[in-house]
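ok here's Casein kinase II subunit beta:
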Amino acid sequence: MSNLAAPELDPDELEEEAFDSSSQASSTQTSTLTWINWYTSLPGHDYFCEVHEEFIEDDFNLTGLQAMVPFWKEALEMVLDVEPEEDSSKIPDVSIVESSAELLYGLVHQRFIISKTGLSCMVEKYEAGHFGACPRVFCHATPVLPCGRADMPGIDTVKLYCPNCGDIYTPPSSKYASVDGAFFGTTFAPLFFQTYPELHAAPFFATNPPSTAAPSPSASTLPVGGPTFTNPNPHGGQKPALGRVYVPRIYGFKVSERARSGPRMKWLRERPERCEELDNVDWKGRWIDGAGGAGATDEDEDMQAGGEVKRGALFDDEDEAEEDEEEEEEEEEGAAAGVAAATATQGIGATSQGAVHAVKSTVGAGVSGSPSSAGRR
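and the structure:
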C-alpha cells in the first residue's frame, strides 16, 4: 500500500484560523466581564463587594430609589448589562447615565451589605484585611470596617470604624476621597459586629486572658485577632480588648488634666477591668450609689460624697443646660436689680424735685405774706 501524502496547509489559512481562535477567546473574556465586575475593580472601589444581580432584579430591594436616581431606567439597564432600546435620543450624554448607574449601585450596595448574603460577602473581605487597619498605635493594627456618617448621598465620604477603640477614621489614601459614605451607611458597621460577635472586642479590659489561669502578659501585648473566648456579657464581643491608653509625661511625671496639654478626653478610651463593673454605673457612665471599682480614680472618689454622685462637666450633658439656666437667672436678677435701681433713682429724683418745689413755694409764700416787714425796710 502506498502511503497517502499529508495535505499541505496554506500559511494564510493558518493565520486566519489563529485569528479566529484569538478573537473568540477575547470575545468570551469580554462577555464574562459585567458592569459590576468592572465597577468594583476600579481604583478606590475595593471596599465594595459585588452585589448579586438577583438582588437588584428584585423590585422590593429598590423601593424608594427611583425618586433619587435620575434616568432610572437607563441606569438600571446599564448596571444589569441590558441592551438599551433603540430610541435613546432623550439621553443627552452617556456620562450622565454612567453617574446615575454609579449612584444606583451605591444605594443598592448599602442595602445589600446589611442582608445575610451581603454580610457573608463582607466578612470574607474583613478577615482578609481588605479594609486596612486602625491608625491608632495602641490598637495594634486592628482590622477596620468601612462605614458612613449619613444614609443620604452627597453628605460625607466613607470612613473606617475600629471595633477596638470604637472610633472612626479617614481612609489613609486619597483614592477613597471620591467614595460616598452613604454607599455603606450608618447601619452596616454595628450590625456587622452584632452578627459576628467573635470579631468584636470585649467591652472590658481583662488584664489576664480568661483562657489561662496563670498570670500572663497584659492584653495590650496580645496579638490582634487572637483566640476568641466566651464572654460573660452576652451583648459583648469575644476578642480580647486592647485597653491601653496613652499617658502624656514630662520628664517621667504625668501631666495633670488641668494643664493645657492634659489628657482631658482620656476617659473616652478607658475600659472597665471586669464585666461586673458595667452593672455599677448608670446609662451615663456614672457610679451608682457611691459604688466604686478598681479603675476608679481619685477624681471619681471626690465626685462621690456620701453616696451622692456629683456631676462633672465632662461626664454630664445636663450641666450645660444647668449653666445656661444659672446664667439666665443671673441675668434676670441683674435686670431686676437694674430696674430697682432705676426706680429708686427716679424716686429720689422725684423726692428732690418735690422738696425743691416745696422750698420754693414756702419761700414764695413767706415773701408774699410779709408786707409789713417790707414796709419796715
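+1. Residues 318-368 form the longest helix (51 residues).
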